[in-house]
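[DERIVE STRUCTURE TOKENS]
===
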Amino acid sequence: MFSPFIFCTLGLFFALKAYKIKKTHLTLSAIIANIVLFLFPFLYMIGGTVIFGV
């Protein structure tokens, strides 16, 4: 569950480097996807606490 911290950080780094080289829709979507996947564990834990109250 916490592997996105490692992999999305690396993916975000490479996506930002690619975006600086060539600004395309694919690199912008890669940046957004990496940010969403990086935040997923936090949102999952907060959502579980709000919904189930554990």
